[in-house]
């Protein structure tokens, strides 16, 4: 991984917000009550344990449910129009936890920026939000190996009149630049010389599309997956080809994963074993494909690599 830098996405980056449909804010508003009920309906699990590597997996098996921290971001983890938990991370979690002997999962919606604090305070057992792995986060949580990798892409007006294909182009051509709240793309733009105060921060990729279509900005930066999904029905905007941003002068590929409390290495390791089986069998792509993921987003990157160790 490139030298540590502060990149607080996404997820989808982002990253990790991300396809046409309800925004993060509207989804959170709609499921706040569900999250409150879910949290109240399942007693908190103490983190203290005499078992080396933690005994959370055993306790989750006993109670039959794992609580997932989600951030209402399509396609990573959200409540759909029927009130059902879905998204690439929850659907994958359902499969893996079932294999680990935990019959069901339960959503605990929160803001993206509250996921790691919520995990630390035992509001939920695992972060299932497609969270990017970076050095800063690796100091606070432990990650599974990534279940996907992600490049960046831009939303631009049809024909890409300014010829914007990377962050250097944006800076060189003094383009009006936007990205999402907490996205990794903020740090990438700043690293290339764009002034942070000049970046228009919008709630998500849907708002980014609107900003480009209306002419408020020239370009919106997001994950390749969410950008290509959100422009599908637009007659005014298009997605650029995916690209790897430069971090420390080197191309950087992000990877999204599940996050666990630092003392629960047994659960993380067991989760990784099942994840690797899904990768080798090809079932991982089958699970993620309905959410827009392709073979290009499959990865052999490890958490250790992305944490910088």
Automatic annotation (TrEMBL):
<protein>
    <submittedName>
        <fullName>Ectoine/hydroxyectoine ABC transporter substrate-binding protein EhuB</fullName>
    </submittedName>
</protein>
<dbReference type="GO" id="GO:0051470">
    <property type="term" value="P:ectoine transmembrane transport"/>
</dbReference>
<keyword id="KW-0732">Signal</keyword>
<dbReference type="InterPro" id="IPR001638">
    <property type="entry name" value="Solute-binding_3/MltF_N"/>
</dbReference>
<dbReference type="InterPro" id="IPR006311">
    <property type="entry name" value="TAT_signal"/>
</dbReference>
<feature type="domain" description="Solute-binding protein family 3/N-terminal">
    <location>
        <begin position="65"/>
        <end position="295"/>
    </location>
</feature>
<dbReference type="Pfam" id="PF00497">
    <property type="entry name" value="SBP_bac_3"/>
</dbReference>
<feature type="region of interest" description="Disordered">
    <location>
        <begin position="1"/>
        <end position="22"/>
    </location>
</feature>
<dbReference type="InterPro" id="IPR014337">
    <property type="entry name" value="Ectoine_EhuB"/>
</dbReference>
<dbReference type="GO" id="GO:0033294">
    <property type="term" value="F:ectoine binding"/>
</dbReference>
């Amino acid at each position: 991984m490139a030298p540590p830098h502060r990149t607080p996405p996404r997820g989808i980056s982002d990253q990790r917000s991300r396809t046409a449909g309800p925004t993060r804010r509207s989804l959170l508003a709609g499921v706040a009550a569900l999250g409150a009920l879910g949290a109240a309906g399942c007693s908190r699990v103490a983190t203290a344990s005499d078992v080396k590597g933690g005994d959370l997996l055993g306790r989750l098996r006993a109670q039959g449910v794992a609580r997932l921290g989600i951030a209402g971001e399509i396609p990573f983890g959200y409540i759909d129009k029927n009130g059902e938990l879905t998204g690439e991370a929850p659907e994958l979690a359902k499969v893996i936890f079932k294999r680990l002997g935990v019959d069901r999962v339960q959503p605990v919606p929160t803001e993206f920026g509250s996921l790691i604090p919520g995990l630390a305070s035992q509001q939920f057992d695992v972060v299932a939000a497609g969270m990017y792995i970076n050095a800063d986060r690796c100091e606070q949580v432990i990650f599974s190996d990534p279940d996907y990798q992600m490049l960046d892409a831009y939303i631009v007006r049809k024909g890409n009149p300014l010829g914007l294909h990377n962050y250097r182009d944006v800076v060189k051509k003094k383009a009006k630049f936007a990205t999402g709240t907490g996205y990794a793309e903020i740090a990438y733009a700043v690293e290339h010389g764009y002034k942070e105060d000049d970046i228009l921060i919008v709630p998500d990729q849907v708002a980014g599309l609107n900003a480009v279509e209306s002419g408020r900005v020239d370009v919106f930066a997001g994950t390749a997956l969410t950008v290509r999904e959100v422009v599908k029905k637009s007659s005014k905007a298009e997605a650029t080809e995916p690209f790897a941003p430069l971090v420390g002068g080197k191309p950087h590929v992000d990877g999204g994963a599940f996050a666990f409390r630092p003392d629960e290495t047994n659960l993380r390791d067991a989760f990784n074993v099942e994840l690797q089986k899904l990768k080798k069998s090809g079932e991982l792509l089958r699970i993620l494909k309905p959410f827009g993921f392709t073979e290009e987003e499959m990865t052999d990157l490890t958490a250790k690599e992305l944490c910088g160790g």
